[in-house]
Design goal:
266 residues, Rossmann fold, 8 strands, globular
């Protein structure tokens, strides 16, 4: 059984899971308001072919939730510290939504640590200052459980809510129970984070994935990201913002095909 593990870093404690052997090491980064469990299906589809590291971002899951606001650099520094703690010199970063931005930020700051990037339902800039300030204000006024009802509607397709009601309820619980300090702190990181000026400088091979029905970070945003990186965009049919939950086997298939292109033929 894969047990929970915790890394006491110099500035906070992160919850993580490390499993599998071989190369490369894949590092999965979760989205705003979720935790490492959103990758369960994708990791299972990889069938133990790679070494896999998952962790809860600061302010999420079982990781510490320090007082915000946070920055993208805070998040990427957490990742770098965790990699150093575990003795991982280079990794393939697989990030979704804000996790994708964190992966990009580490790739521009520490390119020697990044083997490749798989960027899911994300962009070099997500939303606007006004949109994130509005969400922060709404949560401060109404509370996260109330705002989460609107947010989660963009996580999944209508079919998911109809056909997989129990899962939808469970993911609402995950979102609504995220530490408020962590959620707001990461909203601030998204509000202030803009990596568009640095895209052309990022040299790591990249694959961009996006749910074809994603309204939170729509395919047009992913197309801009792919063009900026000189990467390929693959749309995941009949999924919204979290294809890793709605279609994990297909996401895993794209990851495996990409790794094969890079010479990891396992």
């Amino acid at each position: 059984m894969n047990m929970a593990s915790f890394a006491a870093l110099h500035h906070l404690t992160l919850h993580y899971r490390l499993e599998g052997e071989g190369t490369p090491t894949l590092v999965f980064l979760n989205s705003l308001g979720s935790d490492l469990r959103i990758w369960d299906g994708v990791v299972a589809s990889l069938e133990g072919r790679y070494r896999v590291l998952r962790y809860d971002l600061r302010g999420h899951g079982l990781s510490d939730a320090p007082v915000g606001p946070y920055t993208l650099e805070d998040h990427s520094a957490d990742l770098l510290a965790l990699l150093a703690h575990l003795g991982v010199p280079r990794a393939v970063l697989v990030g979704i939504s804000v996790g994708g931005l964190i992966a990009l930020d580490l790739a521009r700051r520490q390119p020697e640590r990044v083997e490749a990037l798989v960027l899911c339902d994300t962009g070099a800039r997500i939303g606007s200052q006004d949109s994130w300030n509005e969400r922060i204000a709404a949560i401060q006024h109404k509370g996260l459980p109330e705002v989460a009802r609107t947010v989660i509607a963009r996580w999944f397709t209508e079919d998911f809510f109809v056909q997989r009601k129990a899962e939808a309820a469970g993911y609402y619980n995950m979102l609504s129970r995220t530490p408020v300090e962590g959620y707001l702190g990461t909203c601030a990181a998204l509000r202030d984070g803009d990596l568009r000026p640095w895209l052309r400088s990022i040299r790591a091979p990249a694959l961009v994935l996006c749910g074809e029905l994603d309204k939170a970070t729509p395919p047009e945003l992913s197309q801009e990201l792919a063009q900026g990186l000189g990467a390929r965009l693959e749309l995941i049919p009949q999924t919204a913002h979290l294809p890793c939950v709605e279609a994990p086997a297909l996401v895993g298939q794209h990851i495996r095909s990409f790794l094969k292109e890079l010479g990891y033929d396992r």
